[in-house]
Amino acid sequence: MGERNPIPLGMIAFSDYAIDARVIRLAETAARNGYSVDLLTPRKRGAESRETVNRVNLYRLAVRPYEGPAAGGYVLAYLNFFVQCFLLISLLHLRKRYKIVHVHNMPDFLVFSTVLARILGARIILDIHDPMPETYLAKFPARKKGFLYDVLLLQERLSAAYATRVLTVHEPLKRDVLVKDGIRPDKISVVANFPDDEIFLPSDRFTGSRPLRILYYGTLDDRFGLEDALESLALIKARDSLYFKIVGKGDSQDSIREKIRELGLGPSVSFENTLYPLRQIPMLAAPFHLGLVPYKPGPATRYMLPVKFVEMIAMGLPAITVANVPIRHYFDENMYFAYNPESKTSLADVVCRIIDHPELLLEKREAILRNRGRYLWTGEGRKYLEVLNQLAEARKA
């Protein structure tokens, strides 16, 4: 496959392309390696409806992802995007004849927007970043397993059956969730959500100086347990030895802002209500000693491999997190600090120990730097290209 005859590849993602690390990595990897990539994605206010970024042709549709507490709002946003994707991907396929269309969840049923392309011969990839049934239980904890959960499970199974190949983000998710949900294991390929090694480089500014500077960045949602983390940090008496910055947007941003005010954390905790583009994250993280990757135990977070945690590893930034199934699967214990989210004092105890013994930070960083090569995108990108090339060759046959 050469530049002269790129293979047409369609891609659909209901997310903000500028900050969706997995979608960026997959799209750019394909575009650099013999594929002509067209990506359909929601349009942010002020963004161009058509643009090419690092060889990826972006088609931005006039729909915004829903952020709110109502399940119905998500369904309406999904359906709006589905209809627009069905119309545009069908028109584009008639003109370009995609060999492959790669659809990112959520939702899973976006794969059915490719029905015309599939009938005309395109191979379809369903990329399950997050399993929808488990994510539903985490996002709406008051709603236990029941009719809607069963509907989400059914649409996941039907979507996977419709797709030619299923991708997912790590081995435990495949083994313990998707296979048990009813998807054939031989149909699932794992392309782990590891960071781009050309972007996420270790900072040469790292020191163990005081105050201890801690960073959280990314989506703000109840399942990440930031309010509980703030309550734990409020127990620390040596506030002048600590500075914690939260950078992000999401459903819980107002409650986080209120919690900071309620606990009187203003001098030692700051909140920046924004999301940084992927390539700016290393610059954001450079002045910090420690990352925080909290979350509440639950059906979705038990099998969540947080992208920000792996990015911190790639940047040589030690992190405090919860040692869930995928973190224990991939990472040695000497590479991170673990706390118990069910204990109100556990996070504070870990932070106080680091304040009292800053050499622990340097020990973790040394372990990270020895092992970070195991957690970079280069190897996973090769796995993705193998999947694409297999599907493209099968399509020729």
Instruction: Provide the CATH architecture of the largest domain.
Output: 3-Layer(aba) Sandwich
What is the molecular shape?
globular
SSE-based structural type: alpha/beta
Kindly give the count of domains. 2
Task: Give the helix level as a range of percent.
Answer: 25-40%
Strand order of the largest sheet: 3-4-2-1-5-6-7-8
Query: Strand tally, please?
Result: 14
Question: How far apart lie the N and C ends?
Answer: 16 Å
- The CATH homologous superfamily of the largest domain is named Glycogen Phosphorylase B
Number of helices: 14
Overview of the molecule:
It is a single chain. The chain is 39% helix and 18% strand. It has helices spanning 21-32, 71-96, 115-119, 132-139, 147-162, 171-178, 226-233, 253-262, 281-285, 307-314, 325-330, 346-356, 359-371, 377-396; strands at 7-12, 35-42, 50-53, 56-61, 100-104, 123-128, 165-168, 188-190, 212-219, 242-249, 269-272, 290-293, 319-321, 337-338. The mean pLDDT is 92. The protein is α/β, with parallel strands linked by helices. α1 (21-32) links the parallel β1 (7-12) and β2 (35-42). It has two domains: 7-194 and 376-396, 3-Layer(aba) Sandwich (Rossmann fold); 212-375, Rossmann fold (3-Layer(aba) Sandwich). α7 (226-233) packs parallel to α8 (253-262). The protein is built from 14 helices and 14 strands. It starts with 6 loop residues before the first strand and ends with a helix. An eight-stranded mixed β-sheet has the order 3-4-2-1-5-6-7-8, sandwiched between helices. Strands 11-10-9-12-13-14 form a six-stranded parallel β-sheet, sandwiched between helices.
